[in-house]
């Protein structure tokens, strides 16, 4: 299966999780590309006006994993804007994950995942699974659980 891992990452946490996922999915026989969403200039937490430097085209993939950090208790604005601008996810299998700094409840993980799910579903995508990696805490365990979980989805 052709799987695209589409990642927005400022300080490489989310990107490094994508690399872990890629390794496992390739070992399971899939073709896996990681593509970055990048912006021109810095994006403020509450920004809606985003200029993309790289906006990956997902149409060639059967399945897509979207990865993003949590910013200000929400999905990072760049990933939100990217998902809003995708024309269609019809007939695509989708998984979403976020990385976040704070090891406490109600600090944006579930909120960001719920925003990602709603946006993907609004484009016709089928959500297969989701996951949250807490960076300041037991991230090793979170990452290996996410990789195990996502490797069974496709
Ligand atoms: C502007 C900004 C806002 C953030 N807001 C939150 C937050 O609300 N909750 C949280 O748990 N972590 C928050 N973080 C921490 C990041 O989500 C965390 O470090 C994440 O793993 C970074 O991913 P990246 O390295 O892929 O950019 C914030 C980080 C930044 C830079």
How would you characterize the overall build of this protein?
With about 150 residues, this protein is α/β, with parallel strands linked by helices. It has a single domain, classed as Rossmann fold (3-Layer(aba) Sandwich), CATH 3.40.50.360. It has helices at about 15-25, 75-85, 110-120, 140-150; strands spanning about 1-5, 30-35, 40, 50-55, 65-70, 75, 95-100, 125-135. The strands form 2 sheets. Strands 1, 2, 5, 6, 7 and 8 form a 6-stranded mixed sheet that branches. β7, α3 and β8 (about 125-135) form a beta-alpha-beta unit. Flavin mononucleotide binds near residues 11, 14, 72, 100 and 101. It holds the Pfam family Flavodoxin_5. GO terms for molecular function: FMN binding.
């Amino acid at each position: 299966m052709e799987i695209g891992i589409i990642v927005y990452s400022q300080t490489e946490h989310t990107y490094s999780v994508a690399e872990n996922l890629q390794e496992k999915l390739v070992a399971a026989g899939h073709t896996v590309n990681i593509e970055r969403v990048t912006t021109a200039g810095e994006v403020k937490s509450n920004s809606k006006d985003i200029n993309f430097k790289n906006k990956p085209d997902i149409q060639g993939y059967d399945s897509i994993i979207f990865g993003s950090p949590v910013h200000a208790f929400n999905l990072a604005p760049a990933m939100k804007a990217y998902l809003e601008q995708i024309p269609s996810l019809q007939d695509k299998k989708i998984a979403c994950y976020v990385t976040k700094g704070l090891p406490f409840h109600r600090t944006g993980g579930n909120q960001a995942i719920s925003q990602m799910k709603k946006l993907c579903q609004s484009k016709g995508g089928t959500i297969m699974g989701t996951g949250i990696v807490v960076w300041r805490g037991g991230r090793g365990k979170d990452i290996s659980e996410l990789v195990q979980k996502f490797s069974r989805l496709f």
